[in-house]
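All the exercises in this workshop are built on plain-text protein records. An example says more than a description, so a record of this kind follows:
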Amino acid sequence: MKEGQDNTNESVINLDQFRNRKSEEKKRKTERIFFHNLVGVYGIVQPGKMLPVDLIDVSEGGLAIQVPYPTATASADKIWPKDSSDLTIRLYFSPESFMEIVVDVKNSRPTIENGSKYVRYGCSVNQDQRAFVAWKNFVTFLASYTDVSERDSGNINVGSF
Protein backbone atom coordinates (compact mmCIF):
# COMPACT_ATOMS: atom_id res chain seq x y z
CA MET A 1 0.00 0.00 0.00
CA LYS A 2 1.30 3.45 -0.86
CA GLU A 3 1.96 5.93 1.88
CA GLY A 4 -1.06 8.04 2.69
CA GLN A 5 -3.48 5.52 1.11
CA ASP A 6 -6.12 4.05 3.41
CA ASN A 7 -6.93 0.36 3.53
CA THR A 8 -10.73 0.61 3.60
CA ASN A 9 -11.00 -1.26 0.29
CA GLU A 10 -9.17 -4.33 1.59
CA SER A 11 -11.27 -7.41 2.33
CA VAL A 12 -11.93 -8.41 5.89
CA ILE A 13 -11.65 -12.13 6.50
CA ASN A 14 -14.45 -13.49 8.64
CA LEU A 15 -12.97 -16.41 10.58
CA ASP A 16 -16.37 -17.47 11.93
CA GLN A 17 -17.60 -17.99 8.37
CA PHE A 18 -14.47 -19.99 7.55
CA ARG A 19 -14.83 -22.17 10.69
CA ASN A 20 -18.53 -22.76 9.99
CA ARG A 21 -17.80 -23.77 6.39
CA LYS A 22 -15.02 -26.15 7.50
CA SER A 23 -17.27 -27.61 10.20
CA GLU A 24 -20.08 -28.16 7.68
CA GLU A 25 -17.65 -29.83 5.24
CA LYS A 26 -16.41 -32.15 8.02
CA LYS A 27 -20.01 -32.94 9.03
CA ARG A 28 -21.02 -33.87 5.49
CA LYS A 29 -17.88 -35.96 4.92
CA THR A 30 -18.32 -37.77 8.26
CA GLU A 31 -22.01 -38.43 7.54
CA ARG A 32 -21.22 -39.79 4.07
CA ILE A 33 -18.56 -42.15 5.47
CA PHE A 34 -20.98 -43.29 8.17
CA PHE A 35 -23.87 -43.78 5.72
CA HIS A 36 -21.85 -45.60 3.05
CA ASN A 37 -19.90 -47.91 5.36
CA LEU A 38 -22.01 -48.57 8.44
CA VAL A 39 -25.69 -48.06 7.62
CA GLY A 40 -27.61 -49.82 4.85
CA VAL A 41 -30.46 -47.63 3.60
CA TYR A 42 -33.37 -49.00 1.59
CA GLY A 43 -36.66 -47.70 0.28
CA ILE A 44 -39.68 -50.00 0.31
CA VAL A 45 -40.70 -50.13 -3.36
CA GLN A 46 -43.65 -52.46 -2.98
CA PRO A 47 -44.71 -55.03 -0.40
CA GLY A 48 -41.84 -57.48 -0.04
CA LYS A 49 -39.36 -55.53 -2.18
CA MET A 50 -36.70 -52.97 -1.21
CA LEU A 51 -34.44 -50.75 -3.28
CA PRO A 52 -31.05 -49.53 -1.99
CA VAL A 53 -30.87 -45.75 -1.78
CA ASP A 54 -28.02 -43.40 -0.95
CA LEU A 55 -28.57 -41.38 2.20
CA ILE A 56 -26.98 -38.00 1.49
CA ASP A 57 -27.80 -35.75 4.42
CA VAL A 58 -29.88 -35.84 7.61
CA SER A 59 -31.48 -33.39 9.98
CA GLU A 60 -33.99 -33.80 12.77
CA GLY A 61 -36.87 -32.95 10.48
CA GLY A 62 -35.69 -34.46 7.24
CA LEU A 63 -33.22 -36.21 5.01
CA ALA A 64 -31.90 -36.26 1.48
CA ILE A 65 -31.67 -39.48 -0.49
CA GLN A 66 -30.70 -40.25 -4.04
CA VAL A 67 -31.53 -43.10 -6.40
CA PRO A 68 -30.09 -43.93 -9.81
CA TYR A 69 -31.65 -41.85 -12.56
CA PRO A 70 -34.21 -43.90 -14.49
CA THR A 71 -33.01 -44.88 -17.94
CA ALA A 72 -35.07 -44.21 -21.06
CA THR A 73 -35.93 -47.91 -21.19
CA ALA A 74 -37.09 -48.13 -17.57
CA SER A 75 -40.71 -49.12 -17.27
CA ALA A 76 -43.07 -47.05 -15.13
CA ASP A 77 -43.26 -49.74 -12.44
CA LYS A 78 -39.47 -49.58 -11.91
CA ILE A 79 -39.36 -45.84 -11.19
CA TRP A 80 -39.26 -45.09 -7.48
CA PRO A 81 -40.70 -43.25 -5.72
CA LYS A 82 -43.99 -43.09 -7.59
CA ASP A 83 -45.76 -41.21 -4.79
CA SER A 84 -44.38 -38.31 -2.85
CA SER A 85 -45.95 -39.10 0.53
CA ASP A 86 -45.66 -41.88 3.06
CA LEU A 87 -42.51 -43.43 1.63
CA THR A 88 -41.00 -46.03 3.92
CA ILE A 89 -37.25 -45.93 4.47
CA ARG A 90 -35.34 -48.58 6.40
CA LEU A 91 -31.97 -47.93 8.00
CA TYR A 92 -30.15 -51.19 8.71
CA PHE A 93 -27.54 -51.09 11.46
CA SER A 94 -26.91 -54.84 11.17
CA PRO A 95 -28.13 -57.50 8.74
CA GLU A 96 -30.94 -58.42 11.16
CA SER A 97 -32.07 -55.09 12.61
CA PHE A 98 -33.38 -51.86 11.18
CA MET A 99 -35.15 -48.63 12.05
CA GLU A 100 -38.09 -47.77 9.82
CA ILE A 101 -39.13 -44.18 9.17
CA VAL A 102 -41.78 -42.69 6.93
CA VAL A 103 -40.99 -39.63 4.82
CA ASP A 104 -42.71 -37.25 2.43
CA VAL A 105 -40.86 -35.98 -0.64
CA LYS A 106 -40.71 -32.17 -0.62
CA ASN A 107 -38.46 -31.64 -3.67
CA SER A 108 -36.44 -33.53 -6.25
CA ARG A 109 -33.75 -32.73 -8.76
CA PRO A 110 -31.42 -34.58 -11.10
CA THR A 111 -27.77 -34.67 -10.07
CA ILE A 112 -24.50 -36.19 -11.26
CA GLU A 113 -22.07 -37.73 -8.79
CA ASN A 114 -18.85 -39.46 -9.82
CA GLY A 115 -20.06 -39.54 -13.42
CA SER A 116 -23.37 -41.30 -12.63
CA LYS A 117 -26.82 -39.74 -12.92
CA TYR A 118 -29.16 -39.73 -9.92
CA VAL A 119 -32.38 -38.17 -8.76
CA ARG A 120 -31.95 -36.53 -5.35
CA TYR A 121 -34.98 -36.17 -3.08
CA GLY A 122 -35.39 -33.82 -0.14
CA CYS A 123 -37.79 -35.39 2.34
CA SER A 124 -39.42 -34.52 5.63
CA VAL A 125 -39.58 -37.20 8.32
CA ASN A 126 -43.02 -38.01 9.71
CA GLN A 127 -42.86 -36.98 13.38
CA ASP A 128 -45.96 -38.94 14.40
CA GLN A 129 -44.35 -42.34 13.96
CA ARG A 130 -42.99 -44.60 16.67
CA ALA A 131 -39.37 -44.37 15.44
CA PHE A 132 -39.17 -40.56 15.39
CA VAL A 133 -37.54 -40.28 18.85
CA ALA A 134 -34.86 -42.79 17.77
CA TRP A 135 -34.40 -40.85 14.50
CA LYS A 136 -33.98 -37.60 16.43
CA ASN A 137 -31.40 -39.22 18.73
CA PHE A 138 -29.57 -40.69 15.73
CA VAL A 139 -29.26 -37.22 14.18
CA THR A 140 -28.10 -35.78 17.52
CA PHE A 141 -25.50 -38.55 17.78
CA LEU A 142 -24.18 -37.79 14.30
CA ALA A 143 -23.83 -34.10 15.12
CA SER A 144 -21.98 -34.90 18.36
CA TYR A 145 -19.80 -37.49 16.66
CA THR A 146 -18.81 -34.99 13.98
CA ASP A 147 -17.65 -32.56 16.66
CA VAL A 148 -15.32 -35.06 18.34
CA SER A 149 -14.30 -37.44 15.54
CA GLU A 150 -10.71 -37.62 14.39
CA ARG A 151 -9.13 -39.00 11.25
CA ASP A 152 -7.29 -42.29 11.76
CA SER A 153 -3.75 -41.75 10.51
CA GLY A 154 -2.87 -45.45 10.78
CA ASN A 155 -0.10 -44.74 13.28
CA ILE A 156 -1.28 -47.41 15.76
CA ASN A 157 -1.05 -51.10 14.87
CA VAL A 158 -3.62 -53.65 15.98
CA GLY A 159 -2.07 -56.57 17.82
CA SER A 160 -2.81 -59.25 20.34
CA PHE A 161 -1.74 -59.49 23.96
Observations:
- The chain has a mean pLDDT of 79.
- Strands lie at 40-46, 49-52, 54-59, 62-68, 87-94, 97-113, 116-125.
- The longest helix spans residues 15-37.
